[in-house]
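Because discrete structure vocabularies remain unfamiliar, it helps to consider an illustrative case, giving the amino acid sequence and backbone structure tokens:
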Amino acid sequence: MSRLRFPRGRAALLAGTAAVVALAASACAPKASVSANSATQGTSAASSASCSASSLPLHKQGQLTVATDSPAYAPWFDNNAPSDGKGFESAVAYAVAKELGFTAGQVKWVTESFDDSYAPGNKPFDFDINEISITAAREKAVDFSTGYYTANQGVLTLSTSKYAGATSLAQLKGAKIGVQVSTTSYQAVQDEIKPSGSISVFNTTDDEVNALKNHQVDAIVTDMPTVFYLAGAELDNGKIVGQFSYDGGGAPEQFGLLLQKNSGLTSCLDQAIAKLTSSGELASITKQWLADSANAPELAQ
């Protein structure tokens, strides 16, 4: 769900392999657009003072209010409990909070639906972390931080499907493909696979999976971490066909922390992500929670 993310439906992620193959740059490597030099500049005395926990323009003083959708599923979160620090996005949120000077106890989680998060208007949170892809259209209504994760699209089918052995996007043109509403996956399928038939759009990931099980669609397309989860936990005979990148005619698709438009926190979040990137901590978090996504084959055009 692209993830330009989106509502989804899946339970706890199977624990990732501890000894993991090095992250594939095209699949999992987080790509912050803030360079090491700019991160250094951003941590000047003046910047450090303006981004200290005591001086930040917060939704509620004394705490960092972080939003996400509910249910919050793996591998992004653990057991629908964002506050436990487990799962990729929970871990990223707490790492960012620490960079800003907050303790774990000062982080307060609230619920915000995916679609409401990027709607215009005042926000009841400091930032939202919910696999929300950064797009020009959304940036008209909200702010985004630097990207913290570069998302590839994944293709999932059943092991018995005639498309299970596809090695290229061209071989999927005749497939009936399902995507989730409000995600970038629809445009990715339309632009990259160019299916001969219509694309089926579903409200939730559960709906997509059920359609696949019932042979209403031949394959579903969503972000790679979700594809790995669904193949391992939701389908007895799921087959990951492969992955492909989608840039929408611009930069690679990235998830960003979402803030209210013209938020005074945006530059501070950029600085925090730059530090996590340059220190290697963001890559370490990605490897811990999303490493499996690097192992799917790349689909040729």
